[in-house]
Design a protein that fits this description.
The protein is built from 11 helices and 6 strands. By secondary structure, the protein is mostly helical. Helix 1 (26-53) runs parallel beside helix 10, helix 2 (60-89) packs antiparallel against helix 10 (273-298) and helix 3 packs parallel to helix 7 (196-229).
Length: 314
């Protein structure tokens, strides 16, 4: 690794610390993360299997839910194995290119999750505000198109994050990343060069993806609540609102964690580093754990199918 004037030129290896300030107890921190990883893998795999095999669940909302579960699986697999290797095996080193690959897939799955949440909000809007046209609007072709747009948007818009690092940044002050995975800004901050373009593109991604999605999800639910409260019968209002509660909970926990983590990352200068890193980990690992539980509890068809899978016929 060439070394010039206390900087590293084109380093081939980076070192991930894990949780800075809590290195002495990382083997204990790894236990809840391992449990959440196993539960997330089982829950999301089960959700995909149930939706795939149960014909009554071959509807737009559940198809989007299956894609969300697959996205959560990908996000969990991107981060947790390496994180646990750092916590338990002291395997801190990661190749520069592997770091950029992990960064790309981590942020791509994040963007995909946001896009799927927007698609699910649109599905609820059509189901409640245009119930007679639901099947005509959300056809099989429309579903495939929406899912492809979500995947392509995330894949294309995120690719520039690692590319800008690879092509622009050559000199680094250090090769030690104060994080437990290769996060975009955590790597950019190591550079000893002008990183304005990298920071600007990161902000562009945040506002063009998360900002766009949040605005349109809020608009969808504003129209939904307006339509629900116009229903004459109390039971009908409750039933319509009840179909949205699981999605509202998932939407809130995802975006509240996102903006809270982002706020601390950019403006929480007095916040201890381990607080920020733990929040970043929770922000990525809690949704894959909670999503199958929330939808499993709120969806009777999924509940029945799970009970059927784990009970034997007399």
């Amino acid at each position: 690794m060439p070394h010039t004037n206390d900087t590293f030129f084109k380093p081939s290896i980076f070192t991930l610390i894990g949780v800075p300030g809590l290195e002495f107890m990382q083997h204990w921190i790894g236990i809840p993360f391992f449990i959440s990883f196993i539960l997330a893998m089982i829950g999301n795999s089960l959700l995909i299997t149930i939706i795939r095999t149960e014909r009554s669940l071959h509807e737009p909302m559940y198809i989007f839910l299956a894609v969300l579960a697959a996205t959560d699986l990908g996000l969990t697999l991107c981060i947790t194995p390496k994180m646990l290797a750092i916590f338990w095996l002291q395997s801190r080193e990661i190749c520069f290119d592997s770091c950029l690959i992990q960064m790309y897939f981590t942020h791509t799955f994040q963007c995909m999750e946001s896009g799927i949440l927007l698609a699910m909000a649109f599905d609820r809007y059509v189901a409640i505000c245009e119930p007679l046209r639901h099947s005509a609007i959300l056809t099989k072709k429309a579903l495939i198109s929406i899912i492809l747009v979500v995947i392509i948007r995330a894949s294309v818009i995120i690719i520039m994050c690692p590319l800008l690092i690879k092509l622009r940044l050559k000199h680094f002050r250090t090769t030690v990343i104060s994080h437990s995975y290769c996060e975009h800004m955590a790597v950019v901050k190591l550079a000893s060069e002008n990183v304005r373009a990298n920071k600007a593109y990161g902000l562009f991604v945040a506002f063009s993806v998360l900002g766009f999605d949040v605005v349109f999800i809020f608009l969808s639910y504003a129209f939904i609540f307006h339509a629900v409260f116009k229903l004459p019968q109390k039971e009908a209002r409750f039933k319509a609102f009840n179909t949205c509660t699981a999605h509202i909970f998932v939407f809130l926990q995802f975006y509240i964690l996102t903006f809270f983590t982002s706020f601390i990352h950019r403006f929480g200068f007095n916040v201890a580093p381990y607080v920020h890193i733990l929040l970043s980990n929770l922000y990525l690992l809690v949704p894959p754990l909670l999503n199958p539980i929330v939808y499993g509890v709120k969806t009777k068809q999924i509940q029945k199918r799970v009970i059927k899978m784990f009970t034997t016929k007399s």
